Amino acid sequence: MSFNLTRDDLIRSQNYIAGRWVDAAAGELFEVGNPADMSLITRVPDSTAAEARAAVDAAHSAFAEWRALPARARGQLLKRWHALILEHREDLGRLVSLEQGKPLAEGRGEVLYAASYVEWFAEEAARIEGDIIAPAVPGRRMMAVREPVGVVAVITPWNFPAAMIARKIAPALAAGCTVVAKPAEDTPLTSLALIRLAEEAGVPAGVINIVCASRERTPAVVDAWLAERRVRKISFTGSTPVGKHLARASADTLKKLSLELGGNAPFIVFDDADLDAAVEGLMAAKFRNGGQTCVCPNRVYVHEAVFDVFADKLVARVAALKVAPATDPEAQIGPMINARAVDKILQHIDDAVARGARVLTGGTRVREELGPNYISPAVLADVGRDARLCGEETFGPVVPLFRFGSEAEVLELANDTPFGLAGYFYSENASRIWRVADALETGIVGINEGAVASEAAPFGGVKESGYGREGSKYGLDDYMHLKYLCQGNLR
Q1: Residue 28: CB partners within 8 Å, gap ≥ 6?
Q2: Which of 140, 149, 204, 396 pairs as cysteine with 135 (C-beta 3.0–4.6 A)?
Q3: What angle do CA 277, 286, 411 make, to 5 degrees?
Q4: Which letter does DSSP use for residue 380 in this model?
Q5: What radius of gyration, in Å, describes the C-alpha atoms of the chain?
Q6: Does 181 lie in the same domain as 86?
Q7: Region for 101 from its dihedrals, namely left if φ exceeds 0, alpha if ψ lies in -120 to 50, beta otherwise
């Protein structure tokens, strides 16, 4: 299988600012590689604060006209963008797999997932409404109207390069905001391709601007946006430490923030669960994108009465997963994003084993001839509760199994974390379902379901997993503010 695209112009190697594809002023570039074989794909601009400020200038200049455009007209532009994404879904899916490493079936699926957000918010644009408020005294008319916050800075992660940028830019544009964006340095190409299609759809110059930067230059770009009073909101998906930095650094200008941060998702299998369904749900939740997702189960608690049966069923499924590059049509687990990710995964496994865990399958580098970024998916049993992976996201294909004895015990363990993004549990007991759903301290709960993401649902966490919601009818709220209007002397 080849990853050649039918449209070579979708592989962009420039920033997009004020409706023009441009190089960084200093002319510096950084490399974007294929994690499957470490080969070079292309080079993109290594931007500085100068490009960041130029992007803000463009977005600020375009804001007044864009916000004045009727909501239905903004929605029509988003629908054209959506149609172009679907038209080029094969090229985009290949590009996702090329730069991120996930199997091609997942790359294609991610593009459809990204498109679903563009379509959803194209339709939501026409549903931006306010309220008429009953006046407190005679002779007044009072109302609340929703307005766009202004220029939005979007900072996206590497694990879903199509879905994350679509999930942030689509609601911003629907609300009437303009955007400056910085994609992750590991996977900028899919984002650039999507912006190329937005340009083709007719989104006006300056409404969307995107700049690339290496890991070393990223702080300079983001700090420029943090200092800019014209940037009124930041939407970020990434690590909790970086999210905390953004919150602190944005305080001087009191920006609105949407922070979708780290997770440490529990997955609970009660003794009354359908074990086959629970295994299927865990496979769907854990091994999507090779375990490199923020809502992946990181701690799997299995009732002691069904532990051994569940572990055997799970090991049979996990051991059969095929680890291979995305060019292999049978691939189910691709490479990790880079060698640092593999090192962390192996460290977590070694630490758990040192504390008494047993490796039931996997957990080693795979076929060195493929490259350094492949690891066999692992299942660990009887993991100690002091293991590193209990407090840190592994972000890889490792399933640690813990035994528990009672509902109260497992809820205490599940909530014993500063994070609160997603949680999952399997049970056939109706009363237990609602008790546990209420008790889990997470923003997302999967009940007898492992695949929870949807453009129609609010996505986000609590505690140190951040705040704000993306997707759903609530997804526009973070890109708007309420204005209260009071007209008097009407008698």
Answers
A1: 45, 46
A2: 140
A3: 75
A4: E
A5: 23
A6: yes
A7: left
Range of the domain at 380: 265-447
Q: Is the pLDDT of residue 54 over 90?
A: yes
pLDDT band at residue 1 using 50, 70 and 90 as cut-offs? low
- CB-hemisphere CA count at 13 Å for 47? 32
CATH number of the domain encompassing residue 434:
3.40.309.10
DSSP code for 177: -
pLDDT in tens, 171-225: 999 999 999 999 999 999 999 999 999 999 999 999 999 999 999 999 999 999 9
What does the pLDDT look like over 212-236, one tens digit per residue?
999 999 999 999 999 999 999 999 9
* Neighbouring-strand partners of residue 143: 132, 485
Average pLDDT over residues 328-356: 96
Residues 437 and 474 in one domain: no
Is 255 within 8 Å of 222 (Cβ atoms)? no
| Together in a domain, 226 and 277 | no
Tell me what the mean pLDDT of segment 51-69 comes to. 98
Name the 3-class secondary structure at 444.
strand
pTM of the model: 0.96
Residues with catalytic annotation?
260
